Predict the structure.
Amino acid sequence: MTVAMEKPEKTEQVAEAAPAVAGVRKVSRSMMVAAILVVWLVLFAVLRGKQTLTLAAADLTGLHRWFNDLSDSVGANRNSNPLFLYFFNEIRLVIDNLVTFVQDLISQSSGDRPVPQIGWLGVVGVTGFVSWAVGNWRVALLAMAGFTFFGLQGLWQQSMDTLALTLSAVLVALVIAIPLGVWAGLSDRFNRIITPFLDFMQTMPTFVYLAPLTLIFLIGPASAVIATVIYAAPPAIRITAHGIRSVPETTVEAADSLGSTRWQSLLKVLLPMSKRTVVMGVNQTIMAALAMVTIAALIDAPGLGKTVVQALQSLDVGTAFNAGLAIVIMAIVLDRVTTASSTRAEQARNSGGRFLKWRRPLLAAGGVVVLVLVYLSHTYLWAAQFPGQGSTGSHIASAADSVTTWAQDNLSGITNGFRDAITNGLLNPFQSLLTDSPWWLVGAALIGIGVVLGGWRAGVTTAVCVGLLVGTGVWSDSMTTLASTLVATVLVMVFGIAFGVWMGRSMLVDRLLRPTLDAAQVMPPFVYLVPFLALFGATRFTAIVAAVVYAAPVAIKITADGVRAVPETTVEAATAAGCNNWQIITKVQLPMARSALTLATNQGLIYVLSMVVVGGLVGAGALGYDVVAGFSQGELYGKGLAAGLAIVLLGVMFDRITQAAARRTSA
């Protein structure tokens, strides 16, 4: 009897102790991070300025000189080394011919012709017809209006150059990505093999592709297209594989029972049923390609990106804004066309077939009209060259310059105060801690934090990355970039939590804000720099604000989804217990959405880091400046290559720490 009574008591004691143990573990991890930071601060006060591995902007290490020698050696043997002669040069030739063909078709003079094969009138007509055929008449009107506006801006040729590079890159990317995505969808083994490579390709900041590719394929369109393919192919592979795997197993089994071969099941069942998902992958590939070909202006790729880069380097806000607006319009048009194509079949079914019988005759008639427009644009100069001098673009640039002048004259007190508060109160102290501490102290602190947050595997990864960062010879610049990246990530998460909780708790707010966030994610990174350059001038703070605005949408959406995923019954129980809204948010929803918050931090940090090189164009300095200088100054090529490697190492290190922390949080 006594024994029987003791067992429930012990059970109750264990049950009461379990939350306490969980609480101790949680506090213990936080206390360990706090202890590491305290020790770091104490040693920083004692050892400040010692063993910081500082390197002047014009100084080079042995590794940088070796990279320069490697570049010279590759250039000297490019046309004699068999690997280049029969492999790399052939790839470059094929890509160059593809890009040249598309440019001759729509943007550049072709042969003896002073104009392209298809002039502006034909391009606008073909754009409208294709948009109508794959989407609907509303999207067709939007596309035709958008392309006409490029000419009114005086940016027709630059826009067509950007479109040519984008189309070339998308074509190559899809030829590679769709088969790989289907294979990954059909084979678990291949999916496991390819996933780490896709993770690495999407984690790696886009700009670091450029330097090594120019070493192999030279500066120009070929390197731009290949870099774009590397960046744009992973989304298509992932989404295609997901679409194939999402087809119900019962449907596949039914096809097999009817005697379908594996090939017939793929063509007749899997691909048709995953069509909408595959089109979404094409959409993401197009958006990624457009973002990358504008950035590829850093390696002399033609188009709107080159106009923006030159304007940013000369601080010409008006010209940069006009070209940036054209990039935004092109992104919106391409996004709307591909999105409409994924929903056209469903919309046709919902219409009950009322317009279906007229669609084909109308498309046939539209095709005849387009052929006439193409003929006119091929034959007559007035239909080939866009009329006018782009006065609309001049007015836009002038208005942007006027707004910039007004903002600098009337808002400088507010903008400078805000900039100085963040810079002096947050950025400078944190940067001093990272750059003025001994390198081994910073490395030890990072490794310790990696172990505490992510486990021993994350700690090992951090240790390897720290060692390689030291080896790159750009440790001090890496720490400066790290300071800006972490400050920007903190600001991203402030916005992410504030707006994410608001969206997660209100469907009305979600419906209002989500389209804006989706549109913000469509815009290429260059676009974000222009308005903040006008407000804050060419400073590192400008780059930080642009990075925050670029990264905030993804963090907000992930946080909102995490908050919304908290069971409604849990929220109702907290409400019934007397909790107010603030208590429900801080005590229930945010704690239960910890894994989503960690993922939001991970994605926010990666997005911020991807803006590093772009920020180098407007005074961010550090690794971004090193990369840009490496493209423009031959003697600094090796240092720029090392800086690109350092950006990769920072991205890998924090991606592994935050991913491991997310897994431990959700476990």
